[in-house]
Amino acid sequence: MQVVIDDGSGFCPGVRRAIETLERELLSRPHIYCVGDIVHNEREIERLQAKGLKIIDSEQLASIHDAAVLFRAHGEPPSSYEYVQSNNLQLTDATCPVVLKLQERIRNAWIEMQKRGGQIVLFGKKGHAEVIGLMGQTDNKCILIEDESQITLLDPQKPTEVFSQTTKDPKQYAKLVERIRRHVKASVTAHNTICTQMAGRASQLQKFAREHEMILFVGGAKSSNSKVLFEICRQINQNSHFVTAENEVNPEWFEPEPASVGIFGATSTPMWLMQRIRDEIVTICKTNK
Ligand code: SF4
């Protein structure tokens, strides 16, 4: 049996950069605060907490003073930057450059739409960290759409600019934009803001899922990117399993033993975790014999 890890999967550049930045900072200080999980992967969080990472929520950010804080790849709303100033925090900003650029585009579009009496639409998941940061650029006045059924929230007479959270499914976004164009009678400008890393991952995963008899998709329970990618994977290969750690690999999946098993990680999955899962599969198959 062949067990193959897709080396192009796992951390995206934004998450890798944020974690490397954090580890570098922790070489010179005992701990650093991060607002929310730096990565949506419980195992990687545990590893980083052991090195000095302390996770706080946005309410705690408002109450800490004179401390070191890191902003993760997902980005933060303007209010978090205000706390940095008012509470004398030493900021390490590890916001992904792609997200920073998107924040700027939404902010500029919002200024423009206010002059033209228009509306800004964001396709994203309510409460997701990146979405909170993006909505903050419009003073939380943009219209958040989670699915097509919410299109009625849009005023059909207003000029409209549409953006997407960077990790949404490109096909769903294209479908949503098509529906918005039918609903809104005024001008509609749709911006292509899905991260190319994310869009490329979907086709890479589809190809990989076809090449192996079984897929073990490794993701975090709280990661929306993991859920989107796993769904894409299962549509191609029904023999796909979602695992968050090696102890979730079920020995019964390997009876009978498949000819090949592919291991693929979400953009928040560390390589070391995929390697542990590969080792677990090898051990299970030896024990089954
Ligand atoms: S998915 Fe893309 S936009 Fe999001 S953190 Fe990763 S590289 Fe940045």
Structure report:
The protein has 289 residues and is an alpha/beta fold. It has three domains: 101 residues, 4-hydroxy-3-methylbut-2-enyl diphosphate reductase, catalytic domain (Cobalt-precorrin-4 Transmethylase, domain 1), CATH 3.40.1010.20; 82 residues, 3-Layer(aba) Sandwich (Rossmann fold), CATH 3.40.50; 93 residues, 3-Layer(aba) Sandwich (Cobalt-precorrin-4 Transmethylase, domain 1). 44% of the residues lie in helices and 18% in strands. Strands 1-12-10-11 form a four-stranded parallel β-sheet, sandwiched between helices. Strands 3-2-4-5 form a four-stranded parallel β-sheet. It has a four-stranded parallel β-sheet with strand order 7-6-8-9, with helices on both faces. Helix 5 packs parallel to helix 6. The longest helix has 20 residues. It is flat, with a radius of gyration of 21 Å. The model has no long low-confidence stretch (mean pLDDT 95).
List the helices and strands and how they pair.
Elements: E1 2-5, H1 13-25, E2 32-35, H2 42-51, E3 53-56, H3 58-63, E4 68-71, H4 78-86, E5 90-93, H5 97-116, E6 119-123, H6 129-136, E7 143-145, E8 160-164, H7 170-183, E9 188-190, H8 196-211, E10 214-218, H9 224-236, E11 240-243, E12 260-265, H10 271-288
Parallel strand pairs: 1-12, 2-3, 2-4, 4-5, 6-7, 6-8, 8-9, 10-11, 10-12
Helix pairs in contact: 5-6, 8-9
Iron/sulfur cluster is lined by residues 12-15, 73, 96, 98-99, 166-167, 195, 197-198, 267.
